[in-house]
Design brief:
Bound molecules: pyridoxal-5'-phosphate
Distance between the termini: 46 Å
Number of strands: 18
Largest sheet: 7 strands, mixed
Strand order of the largest sheet: 4-10-9-8-7-5-6
Shape: globular
Radius of gyration: 22 Å
Length: 428
């Protein structure tokens, strides 16, 4: 199929709007993506024509809503190539998926002094839930460090896993650096020691084909809203044999088999982990977003975004005083991969003002100033620590400007970003 960018953009009417009298250039996709009409239409249609609570009703509407909800589970299963749809737990997002793990996994498999390994580039949502368990249950957190080029230091990793390691919990792609971590290798290393792996896939699933069986991770978490679906829905994938052994996360309706005041028995997964009324309209929306991605083809999406990222790196690199963080991008000096190296469409940077003498870097233009002034030009980027303060500490900065691309972005938008940065830089 040809990648018809005009047709694609027409599916996302918000992209046609103006802000401050200028055309919107939306480059904050790592925070959340815009939604295509097919997703919005499907959700509206469900509220208009099939709205009823799922699972418990004998009546037509409830059965129709249940059908849509369970079809959505099957759509997610096929998208990530899980073995069974009972391995797909619907949550509110990546954050809730990881919190579920921190609560249930620690309860089932960890005791005081046991360790979970994370990396220095994690989002707070893969740090704080473990810290809460550290406080409550005395588990320990061990941190895999990164090198100056933003890659996990694999040297000496064989000695890294302490004997009490119970879980490796690691992001697939950094939401700041765009680093694509060598998950297959890390999973293999972990498995050699009998350690299961939880992958935070929030920043990989919108950009590349995910096959959880090929990856062989035990758990994989992601959010619907970062992949063109609605907010409020996400997924925790877990291998069936592991989910069977985990205790429920929350209690209530939907997740029980029988209840008396003396004792409750639970449903099997996935319902065991889905207490209360699920956001069944959002799951339909997520399924339509996946259908949409499938229609475009993940390979085509990836090729488009990869080209855009290469172009952006090339053009941004020409700006005087530009500092781009993370070195796994194809154009970086350490890039050794081929054309098809998976990348993530995230670029974090800061700009230094140049001194009249040239050569030496002047002061740093504060990321907030850069972001605020770009916004006035209609360009939406994210600024700050990106929920990764330990990574900012490692980089020795308070924050960055982050431009992140989606399947609907264009080279013209990259040009607008570059022109905008040049214009702002001249003000300092
Ligand atoms: C790598 C990563 N993990 C987790 C999250 C949390 O996702 P959510 O806020 O959708 O739960 C994000 C969001 O930016 C992320 O980038």
């Amino acid at each position: 199929m040809t990648y018809d960018i005009a047709a694609i953009r027409s599916e996302f009417p918000i992209l046609n709007r103006e802000v401050y009298g200028r055309p919107l250039v939306y480059l904050d996709n790592a925070a959340t993506t815009q939604k295509p009409l097919c997703v919005l239409d499907a959700m509206r249609d469900e509220y208009l024509n099939a709205n009823a609570n799922v699972h418990r009703g004998v009546h037509y509407l409830s059965q129709r809503a249940t059908e849509l909800h369970e079809q959505a589970r099957e759509t997610v299963r096929a998208f990530i190539n899980a073995r069974s749809s009972s391995e797909i737990i619907f949550t509110r997002g990546t954050t809730e998926s990881i919190n579920l793990m921190a609560s249930s996994f620690v309860e089932a498999f960890m005791k005081e002094g046991d360790e979970v390994i994370v990396t220095e580039m994690e989002h707070h949502s893969n740090i704080v839930p473990w810290q809460m368990q550290q406080e409550r249950r005395g588990i320990k957190i061990k941190v895999l460090r990164i090198d100056d080029s933003g890659q996990i230091i694999l040297d000496g990793i064989d000695d890294f896993f302490p004997p009490k390691t119970r879980l490796l919990s690691i992001c697939h792609v950094s939401n700041v650096l765009g680093t694509v971590n060598p998950i297959a290798e890390l999973v293999r290393k972990a498995h050699e020691r009998g350690v299961p792996v939880l992958v935070d896939g929030a920043q990989s699933i919108p950009h590349m084909k995910i096959d959880v069986q090929a990856m062989d991770c035990e758990f994989f978490a992601f959010s619907g809203h970062k992949m063109y679906g609605p907010t409020g829905v996400g997924v925790l994938y877990g291998k069936e044999e592991w989910l069977d052994k985990l205790p429920p996360y929350q209690g209530g309706g939907e997740m029980i088999a029988t209840v008396t005041f003396e004792k409750t028995t639970f449903e099997r997964p996935p319902l065991k982990f889905e207490a209360g009324t699920p956001d069944y309209v959002a799951t339909t929306g997520l399924a339509r977003a996946i259908d949409y991605l499938n229609t475009l083809g993940m390979d085509n999406v990836m090729a488009h975004e990869q080209e855009l990222t290469r172009y952006a790196l090339e053009e941004l690199g020409k700006i005087e005083g530009m500092m781009i963080y993370g070195q796994t991008h194809p154009l970086s000096p350490s890039f050794e991969g081929g054309e098809d190296l998976p990348h993530d469409a995230v670029i974090s940077f800061n700009v230094f003002t140049s001194l009249p003498s040239g050569g030496i870097k002047g002061g740093l233009i504060h990321h907030m100033d850069m972001g605020t002034l770009l916004d006035r030009l209609g360009i939406a980027v994210r600024t700050g620590h990106h929920c990764a303060q330990p990574l900012m500490d490692r980089l020795g900065i308070l924050g960055t400007v982050r431009a992140s691309f989606a399947l609907y972005n264009t080279k013209e938008e990259v040009d607008a970003l570059v022109a905008g940065i040049r214009r702002v830089s001249q003000m300092f």
